[in-house]
Amino acid sequence: MKNPPKILLVEDESIIAMGIKMLLQEHGYKLVSILSSGEEAVDFSIKKTPDIILMDIKLKGQIDGIEASFRIRRQSYVPIIFLTGNSKLVTENDLAALKPCWIFPKLNPDWKLFETIDKALHI
Amino acid sequence: MYFEKKFFVFFISITLLLCINILTAFPMQTGTLKNRLENVSGEQEKIEILIELAGLYWELQPDERIAYAEQAVKLSEKFRDFKSKAEAYNHLGVAYNNLGNSEKSMDYFMKALKIMEQINDKSGIALSYRNIGQANFYIGNFDKALQDFQKSLDIKKESGDKKGISQLLILIGNVKAKTEKYDEALGNYLKALEIKKEIDDRLGIAQIYNNLGNVYFALGEMENVLEYRLKALKIDRELGNNWEIALSSYNLAEYYLKVKQPEKAYPYILESKELAENLENKGLARDNLGNYSLYYEQTGDYKKALKYQRDYSELTKSMFSEKLSEKIAEMQVKYETEKKEKENQAYKLQLQKVRSHRQQLVFILAIVLLIGLFIYYRYRTKKKSALLLQHLVNERTQELQQKISELRQAKDRIHKDLKEREALLQEIHHRVKNNMQIIKSMIDLQGHEVTDKTTLNAFETCVNRIQSMVLVHELLYESSDFANIPFKEYVEKIAEELLRSTARGENISLDLKIEDISFGIKTAIPCGLILNELFSNSLKYAFPEGQKGRIQISLQLLKNKSCELIFRDNGVGIPGDIDFDKTESLGLYLIKILTEQIEGTVSMSRRNGTMFKIIFRNLK
């Protein structure tokens, strides 16, 4: 895979983050950073312009993944994939307003994640 | 001639009486009064002094008295002091009477009467009637005089003024004597004498003696005349009253002329004449002229007798005429009519007053009624508003009570909900714990099928990690507080579980120094996992071949509110080639990332075994 896409992972559980990182690495993707708070994510997105963001909803800090996404959207149209065990946390309105974005349920098979990442990257 | 003489004797005694009555109770020296008049500051006092001066019949000449009285009239008018004005009028009346001006005299007496009646001054009215009576008597209106005196006497009797009564009895006696009712005259005089003696009025007694003498003179009982007249003169001389002396002297002269003893009469005529002239009493002076005429007639000097007779007649003519008497009578009639009209008017006025009083009463009643109604209305309104207020308060109280009960119900409901949620949470923690236990058991079971030691080791490690998480949920569902995990208990359970599962409890002594701190689940689980890694690592590598050892775990709260977790073993120590940052060991890597997750730092030391120090914050 030439020029692997710069993937940003925003996840506050370090072991889960480590698991996702290893999974992505095994499939040839590379994480440019793992961040645990929404504020860091907003800051990083603006400065380092990742190609895609994998965003957890519940995070450390004052803002959650959705609020962080809205803030990122003011500056960038980077595709965002929400990683969540509970899809109800993101409303239809949020999804419409934050396009391009997707929801990826954490319990889905791994290959579905890569499919979603590829879809997001090829818009 | 005789008649005329007798008449003037009466006149003189009348004039005297009139004067005496007005005399002030506390006579004052003329000089003192005049001084006071000059230095007086209060106008009211000035009026009083002026009136006193106007009443000084014996000390002052009529003209001077008139001047003072007129001043008093002006001042009392200015200050609307009616009584003083009337008193001044009386003095003016007396003064003009003394001057022989009957018209003016009567006019002033009537003016005084009018005022006294207006201000309803009983004693003043009595005095005025007396003065008028005397004026009437003087001009020969005896019936009228008698009426006036009677009116005055009635008032005096009402007030019980003994001196006044006695004086009036004398005056009435005079009228009776004048109208030749001598018995009645004597009766009146004797009654008066009794009172005079009772009140020890020596001057009055002397007067009565003179009058008794006059009556006896008229009756021709000459011994009595001499006796009384001498008695009178004696008292007068004792009292030193010039006027009285003049009068009594005149009377004695008259007596001696009557009994034809002119030589005895002469000194008395002389004395009386001189005193009368000094006192400027025209009446007495004229009467003495009459006596001179008689004296000269009896001593045979007819020329002189005629001359005195002429002088006498001229003076008489100048003093009063017949017209005067008519005029005065007319005046009195006019006054009476006026008075009746006044009375009618007063009656009408009174009627009007009564009417207006009635109207006022009705008006006041109406106002009182209105005020009463108003107060009643206010009271009603207040009562109403109080009731309304009470009602509102009651309503509001009810509302509030309802709200309170609603709130209480809501609170109960919330409390109930909370209890349910707590139960649910407890249930969930229990379920999570159970599920994790199942996972652990499944991995355990799976491990039994594995023969490869490395793989089995990995299975065991995995099971231990899951176990340390299970313990958190176990503590959470056991405790009443779902937010905080008591760290000491947690560490104890982890250590106990690891020693049990690895069967190392006998060789390893445990030293725990954990401060009483509770952590939230976000801190407790990473910490538990870190400890699990450190403890497992020690048990696996620090004490090879069942070697005995000691593990110390301490946790203390630092001053900056950070927590310091120290894990120490006195084992063989971690190999020197292991680099914490570039480790391939999953255990150490986990320690590293979990410490980062709780925003802490980790340091390692190899002295006397291995020591890890983790400083972190309790994440809420």
The succession of helices and strands of chain A, N to C, reads EHEHEHEHEH
CATH architecture label of the largest domain in chain B: Alpha Horseshoe
Kindly identify the CATH topology of chain A.
Rossmann fold
Q: What would the average pLDDT of chain A be, to the nearest integer?
A: 86
**CATH homology group of chain A:** Response regulator
Number of domains of chain A: 1
Strand content of chain B: 5-15%
**What does the overall shape of chain A look like?**
globular
Question: How many extended strands of chain B?
Answer: 7
Distance between the termini of chain A: 18 Å
CATH class descriptor name of the largest domain in chain B: Mainly Alpha
DSSP E strands of chain A, number: 5
Structural class of chain A: alpha/beta
Task: Assign the CATH class of chain A.
Answer: Alpha Beta
Helix share bin of chain A: 40-55%
Write the layout of secondary structure elements.
The complex is a heterodimer of chains A (123) and B (620).
Chain A: E1 6-10, H1 14-26, E2 30-35, H2 38-48, E3 52-56, H3 65-73, E4 80-84, H4 92-97, E5 101-105, H5 110-121
Parallel strand pairs in A: 1-2, 1-3, 3-4, 4-5
Chain B: H1 2-22, H2 30-39, H3 43-54, H4 62-78, H5 82-98, H6 102-118, H7 122-139, H8 142-159, H9 162-178, H10 182-198, H11 202-219, H12 222-239, H13 242-258, H14 262-278, H15 282-299, H16 302-319, H17 322-448, H18 453-478, E1 484-486, H19 487-502, E2 508-514, E3 518-520, H20 521-542, E4 549-557, E5 563-569, H21 586-597, E6 601-605, E7 610-616
Helix pairs in contact in B: 1-5, 1-7, 1-9, 1-11, 1-13, 1-15, 2-3, 3-4, 3-5, 4-5, 5-6, 5-7, 6-7, 6-17, 7-8, 8-9, 9-10, 9-11, 10-11, 11-12, 11-13, 12-13, 13-14, 13-15, 14-15, 15-16, 17-18, 18-19, 18-20, 19-20, 20-21
Task: Please explain how this structure is put together.
The complex is a heterodimer of chains A (123) and B (620). Chain A is an alpha/beta fold and 123 residues long. Chain A has helices spanning 14-26, 38-48, 65-73, 92-97, 110-121; strands at 6-10, 30-35, 52-56, 80-84, 101-105. Chain A has a single domain, classed as Rossmann fold (3-Layer(aba) Sandwich), CATH 3.40.50.2300. In chain A, helix 2 (38-48) packs parallel to helix 3. Chain A is globular. Chain B has 620 residues and is of the alpha+beta class. Chain B has 3 domains: 2-335, Alpha Horseshoe (Serine Threonine Protein Phosphatase 5, Tetratricopeptide repeat), CATH 1.25.40.10; 347-426; 471-616, Histidine kinase-like ATPase, C-terminal domain (Heat Shock Protein 90, 2-Layer Sandwich), CATH 3.30.565.10. Chain B is 76% helix and 7% strand. Chain B has helices at 2-22, 30-39, 43-54, 62-78, 82-98, 102-118, 122-139, 142-159, 162-178, 182-198, 202-219, 222-239, 242-258, 262-278, 282-299, 302-319, 322-448, 453-478, 487-502, 521-542, 586-597; strands spanning 484-486, 508-514, 518-520, 549-557, 563-569, 601-605, 610-616. In chain B, strands 2-4-5-7-6 form a 5-stranded mixed sheet, covered by helices on one side. In chain B, a hairpin with a 5-residue loop joins strand 4 (549-557) and strand 5. Chain B is rod-shaped and about 205 Å long. The relative contact order of chain B is 0.04. The A-B interface holds A 12-15, 17-18, 36, 60 and B 526, 589-590, 593-594, 596-597, 619.
